[in-house]
Write a structure and sequence with these properties.
alpha+beta, five-stranded antiparallel β-sheet, 9 strands, elongated, disordered N terminus
Length: about 170
């Protein structure tokens, strides 16, 4: 009987030690918290310029940002319109990620023949993804092809992700 009491006492002591140890440890997060921990590793950068800024006839870089090494998904949005009413509006923009033969990017263009002396306007959007093996450049370039255009509300969102999977549709 005494041997059984010693065994029961030892088990209770171990349970008590384990309970005390568990009480000093942070609680295990739920699966939702595990997901948010993975999301916390995601980097989200947001850049903006409200403008208005005139666009160059032949095109020029309107934003240039250096992104750290990693996989990035980028979206760009901007308004374009006429700085001076009258005439057509033709604007083209490009998003570039990286350089050389491994570069990625997107393009957007808008042509608005104007009637009655009004001014055309449009929202242009672009998106692309790229894996930078070291820090690399993100550039947004636009031109107005001689139509006196300007841009407003340039928004760039760059999100660093774990991986990029490209699937043709």
């Amino acid at each position: 009987m005494r041997k059984r009491l010693v065994t029961v006492g030892a088990v209770l002591a171990l349970v008590g030690i384990a309970g005390a140890w568990a009480a000093t440890r942070p609680a295990k997060a739920s699966t939702d918290a595990d997901s948010s921990a993975a999301a916390a590793a995601t980097v989200n950068r947001f850049y903006f310029h409200d403008g208005p800024e005139a666009l160059a006839d032949g095109g020029s870089t309107i934003a240039s940002i250096v992104l750290p090494k990693g996989n990035w998904v980028v979206t760009v949005k901007l308004w374009v319109d006429k700085a001076v009413p009258g005439g057509d509006l033709f604007t083209s923009c490009s998003l570039g990620l990286g350089s050389g033969s491994g570069a990625d990017g997107d393009n957007a263009a808008y042509l608005a023949p104007t009637t009655g002396g009004g001014a055309g306007a449009a929202v242009l959007t672009m998106s692309a993804s790229h894996r930078f093996s070291s820090a690399g450049s993100l550039t947004v370039s636009c031109g107005d092809n001689g139509t006196n255009a300007q841009y407003h509300q340039l928004r760039i969102q760059a999100v660093k992700v774990g991986s990029i999977v490209r699937t043709p549709i």
